[in-house]
Amino acid sequence: MPRVLIVEDDPDIGAVLDYNLQKEGFETRLTDSGARALRLMRESPADLMVLDLMLPDVHGLDVCRELRNHSATQGVAILMLTAKGQENDRLMGLEAGADDYIVKPFSIRELVLRAKAVLRRSEGANADAAARIESGPIVVDEAAHRVFVNGQETPLTNTEYKLLVLFMKRPGRVFTRRQLLDQVWNMPGDIVTRTVDTHVKRLREKLGEAGSAVETVRTVGYRYMTLRA
Fold this sequence. Notes:
Blueprint: E1 3-7, H1 11-23, E2 27-31, H2 34-43, E3 48-51, H3 60-68, E4 77-82, H4 87-96, E5 100-103, H5 108-123, E6 132-135, E7 138-141, E8 146-149, E9 152-153, H6 158-169, E10 174-176, H7 177-184, H8 195-207, E11 214-217, E12 221-224
Parallel strand pairs: 1-2, 1-3, 3-4, 4-5
Antiparallel strand pairs: 6-7, 7-8, 8-9, 10-12, 11-12
């Protein structure tokens, strides 16, 4: 049973989310505090966090960044749910590490479907895509949704994982930022954002020396070049 932590300071919305997610087979916990959410995630990480931004103590963006900065919670799926619906707000949420972003008012049915989709991506539940990809010191086990560098597991966020798999499946191919926005984020390519650059930078950092496999193609985008083991 997937575990969901709902972080929402509006008691009515929190109750609606709690009831409907339980009805759909999720095991839920509910809090209105960003600080308490971080503590709960450190103690027992959930599979998915439904995260409001405008919390009374710690801002939702800071909660998201904190989770992404710690190995025990880097891989948790994060679905932001907020009244802040401007394009810039959405981009900031994605750059902070969110896997999806829903604006209030929202359809509970859509939220449930998107929550399930985010979890499927994070768990690597698509059996048709299950495979083992090896490239030099980097090994991706798609069936288990795990990444290893020089034999050591390297926790990645869902977006970082999707980027790496896309690169490794097409070594040598140059991807423009517009193509990456479309294929990884499902965002229109005409949006001007540093989302791609931010995530590539984080991916390289987590891969360590192997991060040099992701090369920058000036004025165009990025490509992956296979490293020797």
